[in-house]
Amino acid sequence: MRNIRIKDVAKKADVSTATVSHVLNETRFVAEETKKKVFEAMKELDYRPNSVARSLRSRKSNIIGLLVPLVASDTSNFFFMSIANGIEQVLKENGYNLILSNSGEDLQVEQDQIKVFNTQLIDGLIIAPVDSKHHSYEENLRGDFPTVFIDRQPKDLLSDTVLIDSGVGTYEAIELLIRKGHNKIGFITGPLGITTSDERLEAYIKALKDYNLPYDESLIKIGSATFDSGHKLTAELMKEEVTAIFTANNVMTMGAVNYLQDHHIPIPDKVAIIGFDDYDWLRITSPPLSVVKQPSFEMGKKAVELLMERLNGSEEPFKVYRLPSELVVRGSC
Amino acid sequence: MRNIRIKDVAKKADVSTATVSHVLNETRFVAEETKKKVFEAMKELDYRPNSVARSLRSRKSNIIGLLVPLVASDTSNFFFMSIANGIEQVLKENGYNLILSNSGEDLQVEQDQIKVFNTQLIDGLIIAPVDSKHHSYEENLRGDFPTVFIDRQPKDLLSDTVLIDSGVGTYEAIELLIRKGHNKIGFITGPLGITTSDERLEAYIKALKDYNLPYDESLIKIGSATFDSGHKLTAELMKEEVTAIFTANNVMTMGAVNYLQDHHIPIPDKVAIIGFDDYDWLRITSPPLSVVKQPSFEMGKKAVELLMERLNGSEEPFKVYRLPSELVVRGSC
DNA sequence: CTGAAAGCGCTAACAG
DNA sequence: CTGTTAGCGCTTTCAG
């Protein structure tokens, strides 16, 4: 069954295809009378414009790509999914659709997917880059569409970037722990080298310094961003006799809490803990967990806004935006 | 700057556009020699095929739409996001892209989005329908592309459907509680009328019956699927002096647990509780929560498989697939 | 105020 | 084994 084309509508309404197109897109004046005829014909035939043909001709797909680095572990994804949610919502308001793709933290997959996108498929790209060191972005992002980097900053300023200043919240967290009298505060983090991790560690070090606490490398534990790693590193920290722990990502936070519970170490009486990322379920841990909260939804929103500006022809120099993180105090510290 | 077209490659390689196209798509035999010339030309020009033009001509976009009903509450979304993840992964393996859209549980938004999709934009649709009663799906899904319904079953069998048999896991859960000696078991659920809720309630009732326990309507609490509602209904159940509670969705589970913790009611000593949906973080509640687990990722996978079959021309009658849910026993019962 | 017609980049039928 | 060319459905220029 052949679809109804603009031609069919034109014939039925006894006008030209140009007129139908213009009625459809409100792109030049059409007499009320004529408009009415066209609308009627469209309705009668149940006409639906072919968006692919439209894209080909107008060189605009109204589709935005989103490339995120999800890995299998259930929990690390909530953050990006929340971003995706924010993005989708704002895009829809602007008449755009969202193509979602996952790099799985794999640089090769990521670059391949960028190539797929780079075939007139999308009008713009929002990407949480896998790697901040390599420069393959320059090669593959050939300026065919505007791009916004989120959450992680590539080494060179290649495009607009929206980051969360997780230093702010981290500093607040460490500061609070210090004020509560803790002077041996453990720090658990995933691999360094990505901006988010580095930033959190720096804030930790700065807070210690500002409050004249000694910097002790044995209190800084670096592992993979997994539940098990968080668990294990907590064990190591306990040997160092810390009285407080800060975990720099949500997955490791869970591993840490799990360790403390397994070993019946009372929170916060024996060890205080502050984690990363805020989710509803943190209200039902016991005690409810204090965390540094990242405005994920807002980040998605901001990214879309920047993209829309570029799509509207903005030629401003690239900029980096930082949304503040925030300490949410509950019962674990 | 104009893009490189197939024509440019053809000229450079000194062949026809047809040959280039056939090399690209491996759609007819081309001499090794010629192939090589073409590949070289493509590489030299950094040619990237225009997927929009390709779609227009071949009437195939290689894009699949996914329409889910996310609402603002953080937690209810994990389930669908996990499905989305499964879908994206399998689609990519098949050379497809995923357009993600959100109905927000709003029937109007959902139908509008279907119309947007219904413009040659997608080759297939996977949808978790908002409403199982209305029949607007028939009107808007005009058979232009294959569709797979997931998680919720529309009243009429309109297309292939993948459901999770949450009855299985629910029955197991109630059975376990009964065997542990509970005879006043509360049941908290969101609004009835959607297949998932109904199924869980039925399983609850059946288990009671099978074990000759009285059916007591005052132990069945129906509310909105929110944290607060779960909290409130738990309060009501406590007045009925239940010794065990089953919560039929993840959000209400959290509300329920929160109530019990707030009122220092020991779990499972005073009240046992079994919830719905399994996530990593349930390991760090105290006690770790027992739940009925839904195979969300697998559901996404299955949905894609069905879609691929249809896209490959399968004309089988529509079928409903049910993936089993499963009780995961931890410390809360 | 409206129409005719070119052409976006590609695929595939037809013709050698 | 390869080339020519029509045409997918739409937008938009040019011409009234």
Provide a quick synopsis of the model.
Two copies of one chain form a homodimer. Chain A is of the alpha/beta class. Chain A contains twelve helices and twelve strands.
Description:
2 copies of one chain form a homodimer. Chain A is an alpha/beta fold and 333 residues long. Chain A has 3 domains: 6-56, 434 Repressor (Amino-terminal Domain); 62-164 and 296-325, Response regulator (Rossmann fold, 3-Layer(aba) Sandwich), CATH 3.40.50.2300; 166-293, 3-Layer(aba) Sandwich (Rossmann fold). Chain A has 12 helices and 12 strands. Chain A has helices spanning 6-13, 17-25, 32-45, 51-58, 77-93, 107-117, 136-140, 166-179, 195-210, 227-239, 250-262, 296-311; strands at residues 63-68, 97-102, 124-127, 147-150, 160-165, 185-189, 220-222, 244-247, 272-276, 290-293, 320-324, 326-328. In chain A, strands 2-1-3-4-5-11 form a 6-stranded parallel β-sheet, with helices on both faces. Chain A is elongated and about 85 Å long. The mean pLDDT of chain A is 91. The interface between A and B is large, with 52 and 52 residues. Strand 2 of chain A pairs antiparallel with strand 2 (97-102) of chain B. Chain A binds a DNA duplex (16 and 16 nucleotides) through helix 2 and helix 4.
